[in-house]
Amino acid sequence: MSDVLAGKPDLRRRGPSLSYAVVNTALRFSPLLLLALGWEFLGLSGLVSQQMLPGLGEIFSAFSAMLFGGDLLYNTARSISRAATGLGAAIVIGVAAGLLMASFRTVRLLINPIVQIFYPMPKSALIPVVMIWLGLGDSSKILLIFLGCLLPVVVGTYNGARGVNPFLLWSASSLGASRFEVLREVVLRAAMPDILNGCRTALAFSFILMVSSEFVIATDGVGFMISSLGDGGQYPAMFAAIFFVAGIGFAADRLYAMLSRRLLRWREA
Amino acid sequence: MSMIHTAAATRGRAHTASAISVSDVSHTYGARTAGGMLALDGINLEIGDGEFHCLLGPSGCGKSTLLYLIGGFIPVQAGVISTSAGPVTAPGPDRSIVFQNFALFPWKTVKDNVLYGLKKAGFAAAEREQRAQRYIDMVHLTGFENAYPSQLSGGMQQRAAIARTLAVDPGILLMDEPFGALDAQTRRVMQEELRTIWRDSRKTVVFVTHDVQEAVFLADRISIMSARPGRIQHVIDVDLPKDRGEEILENRAFIGLSEHIWRLVREQAVAATRGAH
């Protein structure tokens, strides 16, 4: 047997060195630096009015004022709690619906047409509707975010669950797993890459719907903040809030990607 | 060819009780539609307790279908398949299977794959660990307990799959061309290994293959199946020593039997290609 056993794999793969990683990251973000320089140049050259593109320094001082003295953090927390509630509910219900669709023909026949009709519809079109239904409180925004995030999760789960290698299901049942155990321990796990992709799309949708719904129906939240600062002509503060949301969205996506990689470590080997 | 016996000539073999009994089983794919395809036609087969039985035939002869029916993975349409536990209606750990494409859970390590069936079987934690380790050692994967399947070669993955299946101690071991995806050297090593494991555990094995030499090397008895629709054309006893190693490939009886079976299989393969026109 020794010939087939030659060479154990190195199970602890090592990444590139730290200095390499720093240089690499700096290079990757250099287009952002160019963009910032262009921004400053446009403002200073007078091609665009300073009102419309305030200098980055101005934006930064507005930002620190809002961060330490103002209500930026409070509004952000309000927004994120709405997005997280809507997204969380969408993930739980979406994964369950996707699994059921993949497992039962009747459920599939029932849900599939609904998914196909609603998938391409922009969910922001529902803002007036949920406002009529649920008023101006948190629930209207949470419902909107939930509806927007639901379909990518359902579709991702369904596609993943349908694509599971049938031999894995047979293996599990011949090892003594019940139907429910096969669903939970094999289908769910095997579909995980597609589920996580669906959730990533949903995460982006949750940010979009969080901000856009707060433009229209809210008395707090970052979306509300951006629109009221804009209305009040406080452009540096408005831009600061926009950049802050963008930064949080970026961080959430990176965090999510890291979490996915951890969960899917078995695929990288 | 005096060393060749048909089943009828050697009724007195040591297979006391039937472990698997297949009677009048037919199977049609797409039976509910007009263009249904008859895959198996009137299969009758008795496989003895502790027997190593090979289903041999050209591709498309329905040998895997027959195995999946015995495993309970696809429902029996016509006829009856039964084991000592009664008629087969669903998959179960008394008839565990090894597939050609290994079908290890890719998100579980080697050890967790082996542990999966042991947990289902309800072993206590300490005994689970012990058993898993014993079977991992048995298939020479010691040191690879924490490796994921994707980190292993094909041969190692298949050994892990065999360990996972053997660990639950099924009375009947079903194998669907388990070495088909391996390179020639690994396949030979695995065949010898499987013979040894079988000899020591005395399980009933049903082994599907299209490789004549593999069938003769491994089996006590070989069912040669016809091309579509699958029928059992010949059942042949393999009267070779129990202990079979590399040297048996030089054995005249082995060579003679292989040639005889090769001709029988070839007839079926030729018939299959004619039938396709």
Characterization of this structure:
- With 269 residues, chain A is an all-alpha fold.
- Chain A has a domain at 77-213: Orthogonal Bundle (MetI-like fold), CATH 1.10.3720.10.
- In chain A, 79% of the residues lie in helices and 0% in strands.
- Chain A has 14 helices and no strands.
- In chain A, helix 4 crosses helix 13, helix 5 crosses helix 12 (222-231) and helix 9 runs antiparallel to helix 10.
- Chain A is globular, with a radius of gyration of 24 Å.
- Chain A starts with a helix and ends with a helix.
- With 277 residues, chain B is α/β, with parallel strands linked by helices.
- Chain B has a seven-stranded mixed sheet, sandwiched between helices. Chain B has a four-stranded antiparallel sheet with strand order 3-2-5-6, covered by helices on one side.
- Residues 1-15 of chain B have low confidence and may be disordered.
- Chain B has helices at 63-71, 110-120, 125-138, 154-167, 184-201, 212-218, 252-275; strands at 5-6, 18-29, 37-48, 52-56, 78-83, 86-87, 95-98, 172-176, 204-209, 221-225, 232-237.
- Classes of the chains: A mainly alpha (269), B alpha/beta (277).
- Chains A and B meet through helix 1, helix 9, helix 10 and helix 14 of A and strand 7, helix 2, helix 4 and helix 5 of B.
- Chain A: Residues 76-256 form the ABC transmembrane type-1 domain.
> Whole-Å distance between the termini of chain A?
23 Å
Quaternary structure annotation: heterodimer
The secondary-structure class of chain A comes to mainly alpha
| CATH homologous superfamily descriptor of the domain at 77-213 in chain A | MetI-like
Estimated helix fraction of chain A:
over 70%
Q: Provide the CATH architecture of the domain at 77-213 in chain A.
A: Orthogonal Bundle
Number of helices of chain A: 14
Q: What's the Cα radius of gyration of chain A?
A: 24 Å
Q: End-to-end distance of chain B, in Å?
A: 35 Å
**Gyration radius of chain B, in Å:** 19 Å
Shape type of chain A: globular
Residue windows where pLDDT falls under 50 for at least 5 positions of chain A: 1-9
Q: Tell me the greatest interface.
A: A-B, 28 and 43 residues
Strand content of chain B: 15-25%
- Which sequence of SSEs, written as H and E, runs from N to C of chain B? EEEEHEEEHHHEHEHEEH
The biggest beta sheet of chain A is recorded as: none
How many helices of chain B? The count is: 7
